[in-house]
Each structure stands twice: as structure tokens, then as C-alpha cells.
Amino acid sequence: QVQLVESGGGSVQAGGSLRLSCAVSVSGYTYTMGWFRQAPGKEREGVAAIRTGSGSTYYADSVKGRFTISQDNAKNTVYLQMNSLKPEDTDMYYCAAFLLGPSPLSPQYKYWGQGTQVTVSS
Questions:
Q1: Given this model, what pLDDT does residue 29 score?
Q2: How far apart are CA 67 and CA 98, in angstroms?
Q3: φ and ψ at 87, to 5 degrees?
Q4: Is 117 exposed, middle or buried, given 0-12, 13-18 or 19+ CB atoms closer than 10 A?
Q5: Other Cβ atoms closer than 10 A to 62
Q6: How many CB atoms lie within 10 A of CB 78?
Q7: Element (H, E) at 4
Q8: Average of per-residue pLDDT across 99-117
Q9: Which of 6-15, 28-37, 110-119 has the lowest mean pLDDT?
């Protein structure tokens, strides 16, 4: 069973930055990892994704130029650097691993973390 452990959420003022981390309990595989966010009563939205083998990255239009996804293979960890945060970025953020479908930003992943809250105040 693959486990994902997120950290790094918190509260910040608009214009600030946060870095989320997602540690994965497996190594030696290449796979796709994604970051998603979801507000109560809304659909889970793909924010960013990375293919750990090629390093290819994918971003939602709403975060392009502000968020950066990266990986540290030695630590089996994927990061989401979030800059220029806006109040509308307030959500619960989830990481996911092992894509099951064709689109890295669709919520079709096999494993999910427990989520970390990000709150941006104006």
C-alpha cells in the first residue's frame, strides 16, 4: 500500500507564498503525481502534475506563472511552490500518485493523501 503524506499548508496573506510537500512511501518507480484542491461542495480541481520519469509538468491555467511543481527523487518527495497567492486559492490541497487515466490534471489517481489546508486572506 502506497502512502502519501502532505505537509506545508497554513494561513498566509494575499501575495504571500507557501510550499507544500508530498512524501511518497515508494521508490524505484516512475509515475505521475498531481496536486489537487477542493472546497466543500465543489469538484476536485487539478492544479499541477509531474511525470517523475521525464520531469514533464502540467498546470491549470489558474495557477500558471504562480505555482511550480518539482520533485526530489532522493527524498521521494514532490513539492508545490505557491507564490503570489490569492484568496481564491483557499482550499484543501491533496496530492495524488499513480495516474489511472490519460489526463494528469484529472482526479483519476490510485493513491491520495489526507489533504492540507491552505487559507489566503485578503
A1: 78
A2: 21
A3: -55, -30
A4: exposed
A5: 13
A6: 27
A7: strand 4-7
A8: 95
A9: 28-37
User: Sheet of 77-82: strands edge to edge?
Assistant: 4-7, 18-24, 77-82, 67-72
CB of 70 closer than 8 Å to CB of 81 = yes
Cα 67 from chain centroid?
Answer: 10
- Contact in structure between 77 and 24 (CB atoms under 8 Å): yes
Residue 75 phi/psi, 5° resolution? Answer: -105, 0
Nearest by Cα to 8 from 122, 115, 120, 121: 115
105 C-beta neighbours (distance < 10 Å), count: 17
DSSP class per residue in 27-57: -S---EEEEEEE-TTS--EEEEEEETTT--E
pLDDT, average across residues 39-56: 94
Q: Taking a C-beta distance cutoff of 8 angstroms, is the pair 91, 82 a contact?
A: no
- Phi first, then psi: what are they for 89, rounded to 5°? -85, -5
For residue 15, the 8-state DSSP code is T
